[in-house]
Every structure is written in C-alpha cells, then in structure tokens.
Input
Amino acid sequence: MSTTQAPKGTYDLLPDDSAERDEIVVAAVRVFEAYGYRHIVTPEFEDTALFERGVGEATDIVRKEMYTFPDKGGRLLTLRPEGTAPVCRAYIEHGMHKWPQPVKLWYHAPMFRYERPQAGRYREHYQIGAESIGSAEPAVDAEVVALLGRILGELGLDRVRLVINSMGDRTCRPAYGELLRDYLRAHDDELCEDCRVRIELNPLRTFDCKEEGCRAVTAQAPRLIDYLCADCREHFEAVLGLLRAVGLEPEIDASLVRGLDYYTRTTFEFQSLALESAQNAVGGGGRYDGLIEQLGGRPTPGCGFGSGLERIALARRRTAAAGPRTPVYVVSFADEARGEAFALAQLLRGEGMPGAELDLAGRSVKGQFKQAARLGARLAVLVGLEELGEGEVRVRDLAGGAERDCRVAQLPALVGELLGGGAAGGAPIGGAEGPAGEAS
Ligand code: HAM
Output
C-alpha cells in the first residue's frame, strides 16, 4: 500500500482550490448572518447510535457508508456522515428549547461517507448547512429554501433548478407506506435484492435506488403527494406560496424522498444542470419534525439544508461563475516605479477593496502582463509610464484593452466602478459613456 497518496475518495486542497473554496464559504457566511443564523461547531465523531437512530437504519448511509470504529475505551464511534443529527443532539444536550425559537444555526464541516468515489462524490466531503429548530411554520421551510437559493445566487451559480416535494407526516405517511408496500410486493421480482429488503424496512427508500429495474417500478408507484392529509397539503401549499412570492419557482418532484429517514413534509434540492445527474444536487434538505423526539428530546419541529462545497465549486467552474482570484494586477513600467506599485497594491487591498497582486519576482513588463493573465486578472493598473503626470495612473481592461487615466486618489472608485457588477459584470471601459482613454 502506498503511503504517498491521500486515501481513495479524499483529496488535498491546494492553494488555488482552497482560495476558491474560501470565497464560497465567506459568501455563505455573510448570507447566513444576514438571515439571522449563528455558527455551531460539533465534534467530528459521535456515538454511532446517534446516526443509527437519527438518520435511520434503512438508509444507505447507516447500512453501508459510515466510518465506524471502537475507541480504546470500547465505545462505538462514527465519523460524522451528515450534520443534522449532531446539531439536534446539541440542541437537546444544551437545553436550547429555552432559547428564543426557532434556534437558527449554521455549520461548515467535513462529512465522511464510504461511497463510490467519482467527480462530485467523495468519501470526505465538506458541507455548509443550516438548521432552524423549534417552529413548524411554513415560513421556516421557505426561509431555509430561500437562504440556500440566495447563497447559490450570490456565488453566481446559474443553470440551477429547485425541486420540492412533501413527505407527509405521522398522520398520512403510515397509510401510504402500507399502500406502497403492497404495490412493491406485487412487483418484487422486478426489484434488486436491496430494494426487496427495503420493502419491509422502509419502502420509501426504494425511490433512492439507481437500478434501472427498480426505477421503472417506482416510476409507476403510488405517489405520497397524492395521499397527503389536509394539514400537510395546506403546509405544502403555504411553503410554495411563500417561495413564489420571493421569485422562486420550485418544480414539484413527487419522487424526491432524499436519502435520510428523518424527513417529514417539505423536502427540496437545488440541482445544477452543469453537473452529471447522479450527483447534480448542489444542496438539499427539508423538514424533520420527529427527529429531536426520536433522539430523546421533547417533540420539536425543525428544518434545514446541507450543501456540498465540492459540487458548488465544480458547478461554478463549469458555468464560469467563479471570479478571478485577484481581479487587479499592478504593473510597473520602470524599476523606480516599483515602490509606487507596492503602495497601490496595498491601497487596493484595504477594506472594501477588490484585492490586488503585483510582481514579486522581478519580471519584465511583458512578464508582468503574462503573470496577470495567468492569475485571471481583469484590470491592470499601470504605473511608471513616462507620459503619465505626477500622481497619475492608467487602468487597462485586460480583456478589451481599453484604458482610462486617473489620479491615485480616484483609483479605488474607478476600479470599483469597472469591476462593478460582480465577477462576471462591471462597466466596460469605454462603455455607454464613451471611451475616456485610447484603446491599445
Ligand atoms: P445530503 O443530501 O445527504 O443531506 O447531503 C447534502 C449535500 O451534500 C448534497 O446535496 C451534496 O451537495 C453534498 N454531498 C452529499 N454527499 C456527498 C459526497 N459523497 N461527496 C460530495 N458531496 C456530497 C444531508 O446531509 C442533510 N443533513 C441535509 C439536511 C440538513 N437536511 C436537513 N437539514
């Protein structure tokens, strides 16, 4: 066995990728805080029983995917495969029912699942997630969906669709479960071995199966959404209404049961059209009104989501939504101007500034432009040009080549204006107002 490679299904995050990852997390944290969510950190491992009881013994996660080990004291522990059960455990353990409800928490943490590794599916992956615990109101579900939608939107992820379903509750689901069981038993010769076991354990889990035969059977199965009780239907309609009111248009997908047993009522996913369909969910979640009670707490409703950072990053790269790491590169045209370049980069790295790079390797002018291109910079700030007056600099749009001169004091405002509409947008130099400098 080689010791010079990371274990299968894991990866190292090298600086280019970690910078991109940090950018995603920083954007998400800003949105979490704007929505009133606060940070929670739970341990990397928990008692195995937490996940067995919380996630469900019929799920693939518990049956096949957990990293479980006895510690030296003989306790059975599991590396966290998902974030909801630990947060609910913490809610109970710390008496958070005494806090103002709902308690709104966010996390950013690695998750461990023994899955078949492929693009967008890892054995250690990172999630950002949120849990809103203590209220059954449809506004909570809508807020959670809108929150993830806003994060993905701020990250420039387009070509994303939102799918939603209702899983019913303890009033309507048992009767539906029996109906589904009867249907599946009548087709059990068309099902894989796993699904035949699922019929008795939890028939809804057959909807997760990727086998073609099983998919054909579940496609014709009775749909839970047609058997919702009046309260669940009303709740679902209210969630849809709130989402539409904020411009989100969810598609109803009656087969969206998701891979965890704790869901009741709302389930949802944001799926990226830029990713392969087997792992196109950039985030998903739903309501889990029975989970806290199942874990030994008093009956407490909750709703949340988890979103995979690797998938967000992959989808962003494929849709070219990722901005350049540093959008501005300061180019010195003369050695005497290197001090000025250093000071300007410092200025552009201040609070509220876009950030800037400059040459730290004694490159020629041509070499500096090459480096700016390698870094994906959009603008170059040129200093030390003979034709510029004292205290003046020139800003060049590296894509179009158009240029504008300004005084150093005006540089932050000009750069801000040119980078304006986010990584992909911004006012072009020589845009609607006409060119202010000559093109080169
Ligand atoms: P999940 O759907 O299992 O839900 O995972 C959430 C997200 O994590 C997925 O939508 C996907 O983006 C990402 N993900 C899952 N597994 C992998 C993997 N092996 N490799 C890469 N990315 C992955 C949960 O974990 C629930 N705890 C979400 C939740 C929170 N529901 C309510 N509250």
Q: What stands out?
A: Residues 82-84, 113, 115, 120-122, 125, 127, 129, 131, 258-260, 281-286, 304-308, 310-311 surround histidyl-adenosine monophosphate (CB under 6 Å). The chain has two domains: 15-172+228-319, 328-418.
